[in-house]
Amino acid sequence: MAALAKPELWRTEVGDAVAVLHIPGALQRARTFDIDVSLLVRVPEENVEAWHELTLEMDGKRQWHRRIASSCPGQTDGLDYHCRAVLEAGTALRIRAVAGTRGAVLQRLLIEAREEL
Length: 117
Description:
It is a single chain. By secondary structure, the chain is mainly β. About 0% of the residues lie in helices and about 65% in strands. The protein is built from no helices and 8 strands. The strands form 2 sheets. Strands 1-8-3-6 form a 4-stranded antiparallel sheet, with no helix packed on it. A 4-stranded antiparallel sheet has the order 2-7-4-5, with no helix packed on it. It is elongated and about 55 Å long.
């Protein structure tokens, strides 16, 4: 009996405004990935017009962008995005997340890609 394949997990987490994740191509098979991008910011007590934004690019093409007012003064706030990507055999993928803030302080920017089997 053949062993079951273990799904791939690719992940990067930074405390900076730009995170990049490279998923190399697999020559023998196509793959489907669930991709999650998460931005976490700390909101100052004096939350005067603070905002945060997140942009997602896949292979250099903008897929999603959102800017929102930062809520929860003195605590954290964030943005999350989920999508799915299908990679044909031999195809690689470059995922780039870019965060922006005004008033809020960036804490974490995370990209995670889990293969769906």
